[in-house]
Amino acid sequence: MGDVDLVVDRAVAERVFGDRLPLARRYAEHLVTSGVERGLIGPREAPRIWDRHVLNCAVVAELLPDGARLVDVGSGAGLPGIPLALARPDLQVALVEPLARRVDWLDEVIADLGLDVRVDRGRVEETAVRRRWEGADVVTARAVAPLARLAGWALPLLRTGGRLLAVKGASAPEEIARDAAAVRKLGGGDPEIVLCGHGVVDPATTVVVVERQRGTGRPVRRDKK
């Protein structure tokens, strides 16, 4: 896989991906080649594709229950959905992405990797998309939207007790302080910060966790028959 192998500590990557490390390498190669060429990843991200992107997302797997039904919203280049599917083959993963060029790339990559992952072109706020994926155990998102807006999209997809896992950056505490009341109004619990991947990525991955506690107050509209 060429230069992409030079930027990953094999022992660390094996802890995360096990015998699926060759597939993870292949995914990383897609990111730094066609992913850059087609505008899904910035060219400056290529040298840090493992720590900043692939491993940074994959370590969120430690928060996922066995056999979870997971919906990755605004999936873009498949982050975090594809690294999670690679690290945890027990998961049922769907990637929801509105842009056709990104969906085409995701379909190509998933076919090449031989993954049992669904790709759905659409927006999660659309009724049809919600109807297809509601009842999920977990919704993931990375760099998609501010927390309040993201909760409005994600919570209706979750079963009661399901969790939104939003991969965030250093501004997560400020975002929680600003949006916690809105999240509660939408039916979520108090947002909390969990750090994932100690000893794997530095810094650890910051995840804002929100549990769906009740109905969102914005029920999915059922089309009349």
Automatic annotation (TrEMBL):
Organism, as annotated: Pseudonocardia abyssalis
Job of this protein: Specifically methylates the N7 position of a guanine in 16S rRNA.
Stated name of the protein: Ribosomal RNA small subunit methyltransferase G
InterPro entries associated with the record: rRNA_ssu_MeTfrase_G
Pfam families: GidB
Superkingdom of the source species: Bacteria
Statement: the UniProt record of this protein carries the keyword Transferase: yes
Keyword annotations of the record: Cytoplasm, Methyltransferase, rRNA processing, S-adenosyl-L-methionine, Transferase
EC identifiers of the protein: 2.1.1.-
Residues engaged in binding S-adenosyl-L-methionine: 74, 79, 124-125, 142
Localization of this protein: Cytoplasm
Family: Belongs to the methyltransferase superfamily. RNA methyltransferase RsmG family.
